Amino acid sequence: MCDMKRLLLALLVLASFCASAEMHVFDTGDGAMILDDKYELVSLGEYEMVMPLDGFELYAAKTPEGWTVLNAQAVRIGSGYQKLCACPAGIIAMREQKYQLLDAELQPKSTRQYMLIKPLGEGALALKGQSWDSIPDRVYYLDGEGKEAIRDIRLIFTGEEKEGLIPACDGETGVWGVIGQDAYWQTAPAFASVGSFVNGIAPASMISGMGVINTQGEWLLHPLFTDVRVNESLVMCRELGAVYVYRRDENGLILISAFERADGELLEDYYAVRAEGMTEIYDSYGTMMLSCEGNMPVYQGLSAQIIDERNGQFEVVDIEQNKASEQYDMLRTSGGSQTYLCGTLTEDGLKFGLLDRGFTTVLPSNFDWISVNAEGLAAAGNGARIEVYSIMDGTAALLNIIDKE
User: Fold this and answer.
1) How many helices (H) and strands (E) in the chain?
2) How far apart are CA 235 and CA 248, in angstroms?
3) To 5 degrees, how large is the angle CA 308–CA 309–CA 310?
4) Nearest CA to 203 among 163, 243, 244, 236?
5) 20 to 30 A Cα–Cα from 352, which one of 111, 259, 290, 388?
């Protein structure tokens, strides 16, 4: 098995050198680091952060002066933007408080400018107005060519687009509804507020309290709670010191747990409840998987694993395997490599390493910093020396060593 892993890593490294020119981005904590397709240093600390403009083979780079656009070779091809993001219809760019939709060459798809543009389905939703304190005149739907389609709707506030839906506040009534992918009302304004949708449901409120609605605006839980949180499979509601947890199935929402005089929080696949000096972790069917003394902060780690903090020390608990890692001074998930970044306090300060999901050391805890990106590449720095690794199946393959001096 080990020989097979080494072979796969060797093939991965070879493929990376044969690939077309591209750059690799890492967040070092002191700014972004950019490497070229041969893993040689291109830039370190020149930009505060760098993020891909998905679908365009371009990157948005943040500087103190604003946003810059880089191509795949890290060459600047545009600058002076206040905001940048990508959507299927184009690149949404803001300059001098005005938005435009740009193509891959950073050319405007039309001469029209807007007070706001937001991604919406395969296009974008745009608002026009004289100033930020005025009510926009109407809603405009922009297609992939930047062409406008006018909607007889006026909005004053909008939430974030999730699943092709945008919570929005009607400019004439001050009541919230939901804008669909065609930029028409999918759910007519009828709510005091609407949150973002997760897997087809969203928290919403009326004067009576908070509840849960579906994409058609129908109440799945009536607005009787003081707080509502949703994730892919669970809904957690609070009311008068009690916590109620509902599981989603084809018939709607089913109550699986109720706790008096308790506090709780949703994780990704589990939920935590704190009551009477105990912290308990439950799965999505209401089965208790872990119980610990104390009101501990807990976080979702990798699948079926929970990170908890006890007396300032962190550990990972594997719920299914019923085992825990060693304790560390810092611990969190890292990038796209299915690993944990762990920190150990030494005489020389905090030193960092990597663990795999089985808590085996991937990189030893002797680096000043480690950054793992979404590609599963890790950059680890000690002084002027930076080592670049490919991480796969809990094994690290050295790609390059960079000397900053």
Assistant:
1) 1, 42
2) 8
3) 120
4) 236
5) 290
pLDDT tens sequence across 226-267: 999 999 999 999 999 999 999 998 888 999 999 999 999 999
Q: What is the pLDDT of residue 324?
A: 92
Residues 79-137 pLDDT 10s: 999 999 999 999 999 999 999 999 999 999 988 899 999 999 999 999 887 555 566 67
Check: CB of residue 136 under 8 Å from CB of residue 128: yes
Residue range 359-386: mean pLDDT, rounded: 95
Per-residue pLDDT at 7 exceeds 50:
no
Task: Map tokens 């709510």 to a residue.
Answer: 191
Distance CA 281, CA 307 (A): 11
Backbone Cα Rg of the chain? 25
How many residues are given for the chain?
405
Sequence-distant (6+) residues with CB within 8 A of 285 are 247, 256
pTM of the model: 0.85
Greatest distance between any 2 Cα atoms in the chain: 68
Query: What is each CA distance from 184 to 140, 149, 172, in whole angstroms?
Result: 10, 11, 16
| CB under 8 A, 24+ apart: contacts of 353-358 | 354/378, 354/391, 354/396, 355/316, 355/325, 356/393, 356/394, 357/302, 357/305, 357/318, 357/394, 358/394
* Nearest of 303, 301, 257 to residue 280 by alpha carbon: 257
- The span from the first CA to the last CA of the chain, in angstroms, equals 39
Distance CA 284, CA 300 (A): 13
What's the rounded Cα separation, in Å, for the pair 331 and 251? 39
* β pairing state of 83-87 and 90-95: antiparallel
65 in Cβ contact with 78 (< 8 Å): no
Of the candidates 30, 346, 26, 384, the residue with the CA atom closest to the CA atom of residue 364: 346
Q: 348 Cβ partners below 8 Å, 6+ apart?
A: none
DSSP-assigned letter for residue 114: B
Q: Can you give the pLDDT at residue 14? A: 43
Structural domain boundaries in the chain: 161-225
Which of these, 53, 87, 85, lies nearest to 70 by C-alpha position? Answer: 53
